[in-house]
Q: What sequence folds into this?
């Protein structure tokens, strides 16, 4: 079996539209929450979101292309362009051995709204001929493949909030078992619109605290829901010897992947956290986790009452007494919940922790919850040695996914 490494990073987020700005804001504890600007939200219970600011798609695609691509696909193309440039993979791999695994939890919902309004106001004859290609969730993966002539494996996963982590994990397996030499993997989402927000409000998932400094407070006793975010996170995975052979910069190794399902409820986690804990055990076993490893966990950490409690329990069940010694920080306290893109961006955060030894904080943490009693690195960045990082995603439908990154320094 092959070893798999990471050679490129790219992101578009509510706290920065490239990896460096995202990372600097993350470690300095700067959140991206503000009143919604994209539409009038004054009549809604939720008026705060984590919007991407100042995004210019024309840095990455022609104007004519933007008219045929939903915003989620534009974010994916931008993040992929950054990651591919960072990796230097273009021209260094057989096109039939280059793949793309970029998913989206929801897909082109903004295009769906626009074209539905056209149909209702002007009739079905005015629906755009690009309507279907723009809304389907696989199109980000397809467009990235077309851009880079990636003719190999292409598998955009759709598993709600676990999407990007599953994409990266499945890409890891494809390279590990010899089906590709390199894969561009991650997730993208753009669902900050009246329909997306209204749907999440009515299923009681979002925080109704319209204070930007207190609306996303993972593991805090006052938490009351997540803040919707958007953007994309994409990384380039590559077979180790292939990367070495072209003298690529290697950020880290991917060493483990876990994938289970609660099979319990469409939105709520299993109260006993059995399958989430098993997912963690599977990922850590494949990564050959040892008691003396210095671990960091980037949890799902959504700031919903049920998720944070269940996830804390899963970590305790998986690690036992060692759980209290592991630094855990939810970057959703700054990015909000980027849905299908979350795992991609959180993978990048985990990789940067390995690279720098700087652990971003869980900001807004004030009031301890007895059910959430682990080390959540509250409010201030911490610097310490880390040689393994676990990134966890837990999606609606009970989808549990986790990936483990190893420092090559150790």
A:
């Amino acid at each position: 079996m092959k070893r798999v490494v990471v050679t490129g990073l790219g992101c578009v987020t509510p706290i920065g539209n490239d990896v460096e700005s995202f990372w600097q804001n993350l470690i300095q504890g700067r959140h991206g929450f503000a009143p919604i600007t994209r539409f009038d939200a004054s009549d809604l219970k939720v008026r705060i979101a984590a919007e991407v600011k100042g995004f210019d798609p024309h840095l990455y695609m022609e104007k004519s292309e933007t008219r045929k691509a939903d915003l989620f696909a534009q974010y994916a193309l931008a993040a992929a362009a950054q990651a591919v440039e960072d990796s230097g993979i273009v021209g260094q791999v057989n096109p039939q051995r280059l793949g793309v695994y970029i998913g989206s939890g929801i897909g082109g919902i903004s295009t769906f709204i626009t074209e539905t309004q056209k149909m209702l106001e002007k009739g079905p004859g005015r629906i755009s001929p690009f309507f279907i290609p723009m809304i389907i969730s696989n199109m980000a993966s397809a467009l990235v493949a077309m851009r880079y002539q990636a003719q190999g494996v292409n598998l955009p996963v759709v598993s709600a909030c676990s999407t990007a982590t599953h994409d990266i994990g499945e890409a890891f397996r494809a390279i590990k078992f010899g089906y590709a030499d390199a894969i561009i993997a991650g997730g993208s989402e753009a669902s900050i619109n009246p329909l997306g927000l209204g749907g999440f409000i009515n299923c009681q998932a979002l925080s109704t605290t319209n204070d930007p400094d207190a609306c996303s407070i993972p593991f805090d006793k006052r938490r009351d829901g997540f803040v919707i975010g958007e953007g994309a996170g994409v990384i380039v995975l590559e077979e180790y010897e292939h990367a070495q052979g072209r003298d690529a910069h290697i950020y880290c190794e991917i060493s483990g992947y876990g994938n289970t399902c609660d099979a319990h409820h469409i939105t709520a986690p299993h109260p006993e956290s059995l399958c989430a804990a098993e997912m963690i055990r599977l990922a850590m076993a494949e990564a050959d986790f040892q008691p003396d490893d210095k671990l960091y966990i980037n949890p799902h950490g959504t700031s919903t009452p049920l998720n944070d409690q269940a996830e804390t329990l899963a970590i305790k069940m998986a690690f036992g007494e060692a759980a209290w010694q592991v630094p855990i920080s939810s970057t959703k306290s700054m990015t909000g919940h980027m849905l299908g893109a979350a795992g991609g961006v959180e993978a990048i955060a985990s990789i940067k922790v390995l690279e720098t030894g700087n652990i971003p904080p869980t900001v807004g943490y004030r009031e301890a919850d007895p059910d959430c009693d682990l080390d959540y690195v509250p409010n201030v960045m911490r610097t310490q040695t880390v040689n393994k990082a676990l990134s966890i995603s837990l999606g609606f439908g009970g989808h549990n996914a986790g990936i483990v990154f190893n420092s090559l320094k150790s």
Observations:
- The chain has a mean pLDDT of 97.
- The longest strand covers residues 252-261.
- The CA atoms of residues 3 and 15 lie 32 Å apart.
- The first helix runs from residue 19 to 27.
